[in-house]
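Exercise: predict the fold of this chain.
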Amino acid sequence: MTAPGSTGAALIDTLKARLGDASVLSAASDLEGHLTESRGLYRGEALAVVRPRDRDEVAFVLAECAKAGVPVVPHGGNTGLVGGGVPFGGVVLSLTRLDRIRDIDPVNATITVEAGCILKAVQDAASDAGFLFPLSLASEGSCRIGGNLATNAGGTAVLRYGNMRDLTLGLEVVLADGRVWDGLKGLRKDNTGYDLKNLFVGSEGTLGVITAAVLKLFPKPHARVTAFIGCASPFDALKVFQRLREAAGDQLTAFEYMPEFGLEIVLKHVAGSVRPLAEKHDSYALVELSSPQKDADLQSQLEAVLGEAFEEGLVQDAVLGSSEAQSKALWSLRESLSEVQGREGGSIKHDVAVPVSRVAEFIDVATKSCEAEMPGVRVCAFGHFGDGNIHFNLSQPVGMDKSQYLSQWERFNRIVHDIVHDMNGSISAEHGIGLIKRDELELYKDAVALDLMRSLKRALDPRNILNPGKVISIGDKAPASLPKAG
């Protein structure tokens, strides 16, 4: 969906007249960084990158694009992984200049921020005010709050604090026609009709453009303990998780799973990394307990649970971070895993969720099925064990041609996603649908749900200008100019 030349040129002139030439960029060098995402799966095209300075300028841009029938793709840090930020022509709406912390309310325990704020800046502002904003991602130094909201980001602390949807009390959203919905209320109870904010959280810019949000803050943790444990199987790791949840409750902040292959490639590619346990194990978990109470004896609590698990054979070995530096070193093993997979060649990725009760079974069944389908494929199943979200990634067999391997993506989608579906799971846990999973959604989503999603899209974006072709198909198809790359 690309505007005719005359229409596009007239729109650019109109936008420059209001925003200024420096805010409407159309040189190839200015466009380049906005045409692909970090994984480089697709390459798009755009008329211009528009950089509004505030909500009113965002509203003006959307109103003018709606009049012209020109599509708009919102951009934040451009750290997406599913093609959701790749433009289909039209205008890239960069929100990076909407980066103000508008308010911190210490009594209400909320922070009001604009969509262009970098996640790390929000974390730091909360910390300076004596609070914790708990969303934590590997890309937190570059991803922005608008994108976190648009994809309902999760991260490593979901077990304790929830997804971005759980962390959000109110939103400010510019609609497709340029109208502004002001829902910036920091209320924990509000039953005045439909909960509109949850239409936009997780909608990937297809229903409206989020310009600001009221987010929850939490007491800072003053006590923390981290452990790295080795188990004989994901089934044993799941039993350890159950024990810890029962003993620690919401003090169990994280339970991150990774396999031996994942640890091996981190040790191989990350300078200075050290194997934390003396022997190799099939499965590992990075465990963290935290508390706002300074005198909380979390270490004794954790040692007691792990000691019992060791006696029963559920834990084969464990190490506790005895200092902040050691705890950071343990966390770096988990946080480096996503990055280093690319150094092992092609990686076919699946971001899925199943009920927590079935997460070990999923890893076992899906691993055996994929290994049977392609001998030598290296399964790297890791992630947020405590909420059922597994990144079930498949590294290419050693020596296999990368492009030949990646051509099998759809073949492995059927295997993995069919297993997920049979376990009443989801084919997208935290990365979103974007373009790469749009057609997959048609295969697995309930037909009534798909119909409701299309109805919402048509009601809120009748001209289909907001990130068209992403998430849900309403008759549009990804253009041939956006091939899946190797």
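Check your answer against the key: The radius of gyration is 23 Å.
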